[in-house]
Amino acid sequence: MSDDEKVVSLSRAKHDNDNSKKQEDSEQNNAYTPVYCSFCGRPNTEVVKMVKGPGVNICSECTMIAVQYLILEDRMPSGAAQQILDAFWTKAE
């Protein structure tokens, strides 16, 4: 998987086809520019996936930390939620 395939842009879904085409062209020109997580500062070359939003980016690891916090805040994660968390952290190591 190339580094540019590891970045998912949410802003594309909010634009019509003309704007999407312009943005895709711009992204192709910047294909080798790393995208940094707004939370941990790591580039997309050092993480599993990166979600790129309007003015903010979040890596898969920070996303899982946030999800884990939200689930564990209730102190009673479901069995399915715990399996997902365990599977992610096992693969991330």
Report on the architecture of this protein.
By secondary structure, the chain is α+β, with helices and mostly antiparallel strands. The chain has a three-stranded mixed sheet with strand order 1-2-3. Helix content is 43%, strand content 12%. The chain has one domain (3-92). α2 (60-72) runs antiparallel to α3 (79-92). The radius of gyration is 16 Å and the shape is elongated. The protein has helices at residues 17-29, 60-72, 79-92; strands at 7-9, 50-53, 56-59. The model is unreliable at 14-18 (pLDDT under 50).
Spell out the blueprint of helices and strands.
Elements lengths: L6 E3 L7 H13 L20 E4 L2 E4 H13 L6 H14 L1
Q: Mean of residue pLDDT?
A: 75
Query: How would you describe the shape?
Result: elongated
Number of domains: 1
- Supply the helix-strand structural class: alpha+beta
Distance between the termini: 18 Å
The overall strand count is 3
Unreliable runs: 14-18
Helix tally equals 3
Strand content: 5-15%
Largest sheet: 3 strands, mixed
Q: Name the helix and strand elements from N-terminus to C-terminus, one letter apiece.
A: EHEEHH
The gyration radius over C-alpha positions equals 16 Å
